[in-house]
Amino acid sequence: MSRPFSPRNSTPTTFVRINGKIRAREVRVIGIEGELLGIIPLGDALTKARNFGVDLVEIAPNAVPPVCRLVDYGKYRYEQAKKEKDSKKHQHINKVKEIQLSPKIDPHDFDVKLSHAINFLCEDMKVKVVLRFKGREMAHQEIGFQRIRDFITKSTPFGTPDSPAKLIGRGINVMISPLPRNKRAKNPNEGELEEMTDNEPDDTDDEEERVEHVPTPATKASAPKSPNKANKKLPTNAAAENGLGFTPFAEIELKTETPAE
């Protein structure tokens, strides 16, 4: 007897008991305004829910006794979905993006790196700036610290360093955290990003024009056939050469034995 298929990666859905599906005899009830009504029998809690015109929703089934709330079940589901959405929205706050610099970095490359860092900070991400020394560049550490100070100064409207820049090994590291949204400057690169999306080529018109010129099956059928091709037949030898109607035993002569007298 075959077993039912149960995928391993399937995520279990959270089941919420409401009203008559609650199994406990006594429950701890939270009122409509969030006030604690105490521990009361399940029957009395259901009566209160009916009197207020709401549902009795079990919000903490593992507690002893279980905690229930007087609330409309549809409203409760909406609140839970909104909380999950907000939590997913702020998950990327803990992400850290790394920007690498060098003491001899070109001014244009420096501005590009700074633009990337500003975009990350405006998306509530931390930025780790790392400047690495190569070879004899370690003898001029003041140039590296000056590059880091310039980077921090130009990113000040969007974020602040967690601590002063430190020399670790053959590099200088500093972590920049984003400022709150109400204290942070507007991202100067938003207009450029919108223009890039608006200026994307639209090839729908060209595709429609190409479709109009494609010949339909009816057009191909109505095209006149040349008389030579219409009545042309392959000769027997040509058919044999092309593999049409070829029989592998056509050239074999069968010897017939005459009976001895």
General description of the model:
The protein is α+β, with helices and mostly antiparallel strands. Among the domains are: 19-88, Roll (Ubiquitin-like (UB roll)); 93-178, Translation Initiation Factor IF3 (2-Layer Sandwich). It contains nine helices and nine strands. The protein has helices at 42-52, 73-89, 107-122, 141-154, 190-198, 204-212, 217-222, 227-230, 236-241, and strands spanning 26-30, 36-41, 55-60, 67-71, 96-101, 126-132, 159-161, 166-168, 171-178. Strands 5, 6, 7, 8 and 9 form a five-stranded mixed beta sheet that branches. Strands 2-1-4-3 form a four-stranded mixed beta sheet. A hairpin with a 2-residue loop joins strand 8 and strand 9 (171-178). The radius of gyration is 40 Å and the shape is elongated. The two termini are 76 Å apart.
Could you name the key traits of this structure?
19% strand, Translation Initiation Factor IF3, alpha+beta, 4-stranded mixed beta sheet, Ubiquitin-like (UB roll), 261 residues, single chain
What is the mean predicted local confidence, pLDDT?
Answer: 76
Strand percentage, roughly? 15-25%
What is the name of the CATH class of the domain at 93-178?
A: Alpha Beta
Reported for the largest beta sheet, the result is:
5 strands, mixed
Elements, N to C (H/E): EEHEEHEHEHEEEHHHHH
CATH architecture of the domain at 93-178: 2-Layer Sandwich
Please give the number of β-strands. Answer: 9
